[in-house]
């Protein structure tokens, strides 16, 4: 059974969410503050966490940061009342998978939940190797010469997108869509900045990238070469 942790401090909203998700066949539990959310997220196995941003004790951003720091890879959808782009981007950079802006319709939320859960089904590949790097999708980790490399959650998403779309040219817009998420405003320069950082971590010679290549006027292409696929 798919298990969803609902983190929401307003009892009415939490109860409605729970009732609705149970009808959909999800097994749910409610945490009503940031501290207990972190505890429950770490102590148990969940398929998804619905995480309100405005919470007592620790806010949703802190919860997100904390559980990613603890290497918990559970998918997270932020429930945000804030419509500022900066807030959305911040949530996604801290490792959330998507967000829904309050007030949302039950139908919209259900669609988002299904989309996020579907990403896991598509992530059947366990480990992808190129150069001296291993992208470990199960553990959400990149290793280089066998040693874990410190990547931000966003950098991990970027390398995952590149690996899944290897050989294809991806525009900056496509990268934003796939790595940051739908409807997020990110400048092209921000994309370039994050890719520059990623190259420093995966390329043998970051100034002369072999794997994450720039395609003039179009975007980027990840090319792992012929002999390196797992
Ligand atoms: Ca709240």
Outline the fold blueprint.
Blueprint: E1 3-7, H1 11-23, E2 27-31, H2 34-43, E3 48-52, H3 60-69, E4 75-80, H4 85-93, E5 98-101, H5 106-122, E6 127-130, E7 133-136, E8 141-144, E9 147-149, H6 153-164, E10 169-170, H7 172-180, H8 188-202, E11 212-215, E12 219-222
Parallel strand pairs: 1-2, 1-3, 3-4, 4-5
Antiparallel strand pairs: 6-7, 7-8, 8-9, 10-12, 11-12
Helix pairs in contact: 2-3, 6-7, 6-8
Bound molecules: calcium ion.
Calcium ion binds at residues 9-10, 52, 54-55.
Describe the protein in words.
The chain has two domains: 121 residues, Rossmann fold, CATH 3.40.50; 103 residues, Arc Repressor Mutant, subunit A (Orthogonal Bundle). The strands form three sheets. A five-stranded parallel beta sheet has the order 2-1-3-4-5, sandwiched between helices. Strand 4, helix 4 and strand 5 form a beta-alpha-beta unit. Helices cover 41% and strands 22% of the residues. By secondary structure, it is of the alpha/beta class. It contains eight helices and twelve strands. Calcium ion binds next to loops.
Average pLDDT rating: 88
CATH homology superfamily of the largest domain = Response regulator
- Beta-strand proportion: 15-25%
Strand line-up of the largest beta sheet? 2-1-3-4-5
Which spans have pLDDT < 50 for at least 5 consecutive residues? 226-230
Rg over CA atoms, rounded to whole Å, is: 18 Å
Give the overall shape, derived from the CA principal axes. Answer: elongated
CA-CA gap between termini: 31 Å
Helix content percent band:
40-55%
